[in-house]
């Protein structure tokens, strides 16, 4: 019975990690899609970089927490 409980707990941790990673990806995609990109190619790249500077650290934190939960 204890082995079954451990397997279930492992499956729950894996599901949580998968959901956190999916959330990080969805968050990043949604943020970039909301940007009204205009101007030259360089200006557009700078606009996307600005969004990523805010969003990426949050996404990394979600993924890091998900990975630490698996160990």
UniProtKB/TrEMBL annotation:
This is Uncharacterized protein.
């Amino acid at each position: 019975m204890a082995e079954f409980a451990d397997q279930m707990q492992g499956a729950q941790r894996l599901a949580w990690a998968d959901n956190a990673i999916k959330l990080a990806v969805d968050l990043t995609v949604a943020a970039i899609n909301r940007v009204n990109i205009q101007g030259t190619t360089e200006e557009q790249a700078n606009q996307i970089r600005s969004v990523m500077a805010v969003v990426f650290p949050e996404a990394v934190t979600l993924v890091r927490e998900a990975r630490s939960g698996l160990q």
